[in-house]
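User: Just a sanity check before I run the rest of the batch. Below are the structure tokens for the first item. I only need the designed sequence back.
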């Protein structure tokens, strides 16, 4: 990949918490390519609590300010006024939406104030500047406003799932969608489904809304698969309602003969309740065991996949972008069972895995697990082979991030 054109550019990456905390783990795969391709890669994060996961990059805190002057400035901004006028015209106005829009714009103005204080837009050395928001949220809104003032600065944003699909939010509302899409230089949804959704009312923007898939690195060593007496089922997600971990538990409760161990990696607000539910449903079953490992870093997850044979990966989310956890599973040659939501059908199909409707019942899911478990080893190996080939074609980090860097030049 040619990177010489970028070597005189500074890239500012706006994140929610990366490199702190445990979220945005996908950036751990991306940062290596960014560092090689830009003169400087500097992170501006909204949450700088804890230990950094990186050591070679500058990090700037852009935590939200409660400055009353910023709140007033947002309240009387023409940007907010235009948003409210649009909501009134479409008969979608509400007190809730007004508050969400006001809060979002206030946060964006806080980000812009920090950028202004640090003089990040001053180009004293003739170097080129790219601002990159990892989410299509208030950070992208700040960059959209910035772009209206400094046309020479390139502004881009990724878009994943929750920051695309309005129905995942109260009153089906995400603020300032039209303003953001119209004023950024480039918007990069991670799935074809996401792009289609963003273009539904913005067909004229098809050249600036471009799919840019995420990716995961190649494993140096893969376990030699063999069929074993205990079938190992794996899931990775936060303990939140839309991930529907309880549906996995209900499905396993219906399996009475096959011997299965289920491992779940992740943490979240519903962890304690889910553990109690699993104990009630599965605790007395002699053929089913389970373990919740808690949160693991991206490196720890990859080490786990490299050293542990997993027979089937399962994701029963109610909604998704394209789960990076599924990319990781496929890169380890693991068959995946997943719900056909969001961009998931772009990575899982019934050739390389199992795709079920999001309304699938615990009985249907249990039958699929049993079906795959009882397949001959050669048939399981074939599924695993197709899973790995799909990752290589569409979700290889090296290919996808080199293409991404070419897009943002």
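Assistant: Here's the designed sequence for the first item:
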């Amino acid at each position: 990949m040619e990177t010489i054109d970028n070597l005189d550019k500074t890239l500012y990456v706006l994140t929610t918490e990366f490199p702190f905390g445990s979220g945005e783990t996908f950036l751990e795969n991306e940062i290596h390519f960014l560092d090689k391709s830009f003169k400087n890669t500097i992170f501006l994060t909204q949450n700088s609590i804890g230990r950094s996961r990186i050591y070679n990059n500058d990090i700037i805190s852009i935590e939200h300010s409660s400055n009353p002057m910023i709140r007033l400035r947002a309240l009387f901004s023409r940007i907010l006024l235009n948003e409210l006028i649009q909501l009134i015209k479409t008969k979608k106005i509400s007190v809730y939406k007004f508050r969400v829009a006001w809060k979002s714009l206030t946060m964006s103005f806080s980000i812009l104030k920090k950028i202004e204080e640090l003089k990040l837009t001053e180009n004293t050395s003739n170097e080129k500047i790219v601002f990159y928001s990892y989410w299509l949220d208030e950070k992208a809104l700040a960059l959209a406003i910035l772009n209206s003032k400094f046309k020479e600065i390139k502004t881009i944003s990724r878009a994943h799932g929750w920051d695309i699909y309005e129905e995942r939010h109260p009153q089906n509302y995400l603020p300032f969608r039209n303003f953001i899409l119209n004023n950024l230089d480039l918007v990069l949804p991670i799935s074809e489904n996401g792009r289609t959704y963003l273009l539904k009312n913005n067909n004229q923007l098809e050249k600036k809304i471009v799919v840019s898939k995420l990716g995961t690195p190649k494993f140096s060593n893969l376990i030699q698969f063999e069929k074993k007496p205990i079938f190992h089922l794996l899931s990775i997600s936060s303990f939140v309602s839309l991930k529907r971990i309880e549906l996995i538990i209900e499905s396993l409760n219906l399996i009475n003969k096959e011997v299965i161990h289920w491992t779940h990696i992740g943490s979240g607000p519903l962890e304690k309740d889910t553990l109690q539910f699993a104990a009630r449903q599965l605790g007395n079953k002699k053929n089913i065991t389970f373990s919740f490992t808690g949160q693991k870093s991206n490196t720890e997850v990859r080490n786990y996949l490299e050293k542990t044979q997993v027979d089937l990966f399962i994701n029963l989310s109610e909604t998704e972008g394209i789960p990076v956890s599924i990319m990781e599973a496929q890169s380890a040659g693991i068959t995946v069972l997943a719900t056909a939501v969001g961009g998931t059908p772009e990575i899982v199909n019934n050739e390389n895995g199992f795709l079920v409707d999001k309304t699938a019942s615990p009985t249907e899911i249990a039958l699929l697990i049993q079906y795959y478990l009882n397949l001959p080893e050669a048939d399981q190996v074939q599924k695993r082979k197709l899973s790995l080939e799909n990752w290589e074609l569409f979700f290889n980090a090296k290919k996808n991030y080199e293409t991404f860097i070419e897009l943002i030049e």
